[in-house]
Design brief:
The complex is a heterodimer of chains A (about 325) and B (about 220).
Chain A: H1 5-34, H2 42-79, H3 89-93, H4 99-124, H5 132-159, H6 169-172, H7 180-185, H8 189-208, H9 212-239, H10 258-276, H11 283-315
Chain B: E1 2-10, E2 16-25, E3 30-34, H1 41-48, E4 56-61, E5 64-65, H2 71-81, E6 82-85, H3 97-102, H4 112-125, H5 141-153, E7 159-163, H6 171-186, E8 190-195, E9 208-213, E10 216-219
Classes of the chains: A mainly alpha (about 325), B alpha/beta (about 220).
Chain lengths: ~325, ~220
């Protein structure tokens, strides 16, 4: 069991999140099963008041969780210095059986929490509160994901053994063994790049054609292809090392914390794109979401494309 | 136009302010809500203005269920439909007459010219334009009230609610207020006045006097 100030902070935050989320869950169940917007009884007014309170609690949890995700990444990087063999957060994630599942769940939750926040904003901005019941139904499902994340996170930090030697990112993201990761990293860069830029171009086309469902789907694909191409191709140009494929080292000071910027651009851009296909927005709001999405995905694309181009201009060769 | 349907209001300290009250107010009516202090008159006004939500029952204004409106829609509804004259006027003492009257227009972000025209009209209508740059803390009671009435009318609301409007005025100023009320009535606004001042009960231009006692309707 490893206890650093950062991990203790995460434990305390998780306890607070768990208590508040459970209270919100209890009231959400009541609202989902008992609230009737057309009824004018004492219970209905009470439930309506409670719905504001519960929505505020959930909003607080989710906004904080999104910010705490960055702190989690920072913590992984920080404790890598304590674990023998680990060079960055990748070693810490791989140090226990829970790390990879936790990271995947955290990324999924990040999008779901943000989706709930948008749903809540849409609801409180409509006079009829059209999403009132639905947003609490969604929360009831999200609660279990949140609790799952808290349990996995606790298990991961609890089972880290500082005496065992762990793999470094060079081993985890190696192209030489027969793992799925190795196969993924060995894909022809031209295929990866063609897919990456084609999906982006199709996003532009679907924006021009104003087809929000295709735009949403393409954004989902863009997240996946962006992460794969970052690990397999663009990352090597950031490190200027053809064998270095780690998605965590980007977050370190040696690389000017560029990873934080890239991941934030990717998250904001793709989230606003994906959410367009999941609910109805006013024309103005829809236009805003398209623009935010394209602005940030374009920034991401320009940033990652800069590194191979700059490398080629500087050295006259590719890696 | 305004309908209170089996409305009850119980405050947090278990005080029953209204007990199963049903009332209808037609468009353009002038109604006096009569009753002693604590009878529930102000609660009715606050419910119609969307300042309070009932414990039970429905408040409907122009087919809109006010009691179920989310808070910021209540503010919007109030801004668009309600002019509220409070007992103690609720003016901001360090602002001038003009600035106080302009307050309800701030969220509308109007052009300077339009704002100016609107202010001039109401200040002239309620005879306060000669004091427009004076801070309200330096005004007399009657002038403060005229400022409050001008502020309540600057958005040209359909409904005017007045809560004990003459409680702080002498008889002369109260009669002056009654004349203003008559003028407002002729502009086809729905006016509800909560008062226990007998001056209001026998006015010939009042459409109805509704009596409230201990949160219950006595007569309408």
């Amino acid at each position: 069991m490893l206890l650093t100030p950062e991990i203790i902070t995460i434990y305390i935050l998780n306890l607070i999140f768990f208590i508040f989320a459970s209270v919100a869950f209890y009231y959400s169940v009541k609202i989902v099963f008992l609230y009737d917007k057309n009824a004018m009884s004492t219970l209905q007014y009470k439930l309506q008041k409670q719905s504001y309170l519960v929505a505020t609690i959930i909003k607080f949890i989710f906004y904080t969780k999104i910010l705490v995700f960055l702190f989690f990444i920072f913590t992984l990087d920080d404790i890598a210095t304590i674990l023998p063999g680990a060079m960055c957060g990748a070693g810490v994630v791989n140090a226990t059986a829970y790390g990879t599942y936790l990271l995947i769940l955290k990324i999924i939750n990040l999008y779901i929490f943000a989706y709930w926040l948008v749903l809540n904003t849409q609801d409180i901005n409509s006079e009829e509160q059209v999403y009132l019941k639905y947003k609490f139904q969604v929360y009831m499902a999200v609660y279990f994901l949140l609790v799952g994340e808290i349990i996995l996170e606790s298990l991961m930090f609890f089972s880290i053994d500082t005496k065992s030697v762990v793999d470094c990112c060079g081993t985890i993201f190696s192209t030489t063994d027969g793992t799925y990761m190795a196969k993924l990293l060995s894909v022809d860069p031209m295929i990866l790049l063609a897919t990456f830029y084609t999906i982006y171009s199709l996003m532009i086309c679907s924006y021009i054609l104003k087809n929000k469902y295709i735009f949403s789907l393409l954004n989902l694909l863009f997240v996946i292809i962006s992460l794969v191409s970052l690990i397999a191709y663009f990352g090597t140009y950031i490190y200027e090392l053809p064998t270095h494929h780690c998605p965590f080292c980007l977050l370190q000071r040696d690389y000017n914390y560029i990873g934080y910027l890239l991941y934030i651009f990717l998250f904001i851009g793709t989230f606003h794109g994906i959410v367009l296909g999941l609910m109805d927005f006013s024309v103005e709001e829809e236009r805003k979401k398209y623009r935010i999405s394209l602005f940030f995905t374009t920034l991401y694309l320009l940033f990652v494309s800069y590194f191979p181009i700059a490398y080629y201009i500087k050295n006259g060769v590719c890696l | 136009m305004i309908k209170l349907d089996h409305v009850s209001k119980i405050y947090a300290n278990n005080t029953v302010a209204l007990d199963d009250v049903s009332l209808n107010f037609a468009e353009g009516e002038l109604i006096i809500l009569k009753g002693v202090s604590g009878s529930g008159k102000s609660t009715i006004l606050s419910l119609i203005a969307g300042l309070l939500k009932p414990t039970q029952g429905d408040v409907v204004v122009d087919a809109k269920h006010i009691s179920k409106l989310p808070d910021h829609f209540c503010s919007q509804y109030r801004r668009d439909n309600i002019g509220f004259i409070f007992q103690k006027y609720n003016l901001i003492p360090l602002l001038s007459v003009k600035e106080n009257i302009a307050l309800p227009l701030v969220p509308l972000n109007l052009d300077e010219d339009v704002l100016h025209v609107k202010l001039e009209i109401v200040m002239k209508m309620f005879r306060i334009e000669h004091k427009k740059d004076m801070k309200v803390k330096n005004l007399s009671g009657g002038e403060q009230q005229r400022t409050a009435i001008a502020r309540a009318n600057v958005n040209d609301p359909k409904i005017i609610l007045a809560d004990e409007p003459t409680a702080n005025l002498d008889e002369k100023l109260s009669l002056e207020f009654i004349q203003i009320l008559k003028a407002l009535k002729s502009s086809h606004k729905t006016i509800i006045v909560a008062t226990h001042d007998p001056l209001f009960f026998e006015l010939e231009f009042v459409d109805r006097v509704v009596e409230i006692n201990n949160g219950k309707l006595v007569c309408s």
